[in-house]
Structures are given as structure tokens and as C-alpha cells.
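User: Sequence in, structure out. Go.
Assistant: Echoing your sequence, followed by the C-alpha cells.
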Amino acid sequence: MRFLVVDDDFETRRLVQKLLRPFGEVDVATDGEEAVEAFARSLKESEPYALVTMDILMPNVDGQQALREIREIEKDHGVADADQVKVIMISGLDNSEELHDAFFLGDATGYIVKPINHEALLQEIAKLGVPLPQKS
């Protein structure tokens, strides 16, 4: 199972990466531009991500724009709506406008407010139906 952790904050990236590492391969990106490139590459190599966690406020390309681009890439690759990657948006802001945009403009599947709580993230992943078997 593959995961992509996208955040411009080193500590947040490290925390989420550490949490997900027991369950599979974890790639990281520091902004939306890197995220979009990594996501496109994963589909091209037929090794798609099962889950993406993405900060909303980042330099270069923010999380909202990156999510919209990821959804376009999926359409271009013929990915069915039911098979789209699960994306949990992460933000330091508990902002209803950001939440609205993430779900209705970007088609996010989850949303968590920082600081990240291990249990809350695992619950959100379980709620999305992403199985987290122990990596061998």
C-alpha cells in the first residue's frame, strides 16, 4: 500500500509519515506542485496511492489547487469515481470556507484540523474504508 504525505511543515510531514510507515510505503511532498508530480508519476508507473494527506495552505501550489489537479489527472487516466484516491485535507484552520472548497470543489474525502492527533487520523482513514494492514 502506498501513501503520499503533502505538507510544507517538516514536523507535520514527519508525524504523518511515522504514523503511516507501519502500513506501507510513504512518499512525501513539500508543496502542491510536488504532490501533483508524484501523483501523476504513481499512475503512470501503475503504482497508485491508496491515500493522500494534504495540507491546504502551502507555497507554490496550495492543497486546494493540487487536489483539483489530482482529480483531473485521474479523469485523464480513466479512473472511475469509485476508484479515486482517498484524500484527507489537513489544515491549521478550522474554516468553513476551506472545508466547503475541499469537499465540493476538490472532491476531498476527509478533513482534519491541526494539530494532528494520531487516533483522529487513524479513525478518519478507517472511516474512508482504507484498510491498514501491518506491513511485513
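User: And one key feature?
Assistant: The CA atoms of residues 52 and 102 lie 13 Å apart.
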